[in-house]
Design a protein that fits this description.
single chain, 5 strands, 5-stranded antiparallel sheet
C-alpha cells in the first residue's frame, strides 16, 4: 500500500489534488467514526457544474446510509458554492450506532 501511495505522490497527483482543493474546485467529504473514514466521496466544479464522483463505503460499514449522507453533504456544499465563495465545514450527526463527523475538505468559508 505504501508503495502505491508513494507512486501516486511522486507522479504529482497528490499535489494536483491539493491545488484543486485549495482553489475550491474539488471538495472531499467523509463519514468518520473514531478517526476512521467509513465512507467518502468528492465533488468537482467546472464551468458552473459540479460532478459528484467516487462515493464509496467500506464493506464493514455498509447498510448504514453513510454513502447517502456523504452524497447529501456533497450536494449541499455544491449548492452552497453556487451562492457563496469556497468553503470548508464539518457537521456532526448521530446515527443509531454512533456519532459520525461529516467533514468536507476545502478552503475555509468566509
Amino acid at each position: 500500500m505504501a508503495e502505491a501511495v508513494g507512486a501516486h505522490a511522486a507522479g504529482g497527483s497528490v499535489e494536483r489534488a491539493a491545488v484543486r482543493i485549495r482553489a475550491g474546485l474539488s471538495v472531499d467529504a467523509a463519514a468518520v467514526e473514531h478517526g476512521v473514514a467509513l465512507s467518502a466521496g468528492r465533488h468537482q466544479q467546472l464551468a458552473g457544474v459540479s460532478e459528484i464522483v467516487g462515493v464509496g463505503t467500506l464493506p464493514s460499514a455498509r447498510h448504514r446510509g453513510l454513502a447517502l449522507g456523504v452524497t447529501a453533504a456533497l450536494v449541499a456544499d455544491a449548492r452552497w458554492r453556487e451562492r457563496k465563495p469556497s468553503s470548508c465545514r464539518q457537521v456532526t450527526t448521530t446515527s443509531r450506532e454512533s456519532t459520525l463527523d461529516w467533514a468536507s475538505a476545502g478552503p475555509e468559508r468566509r
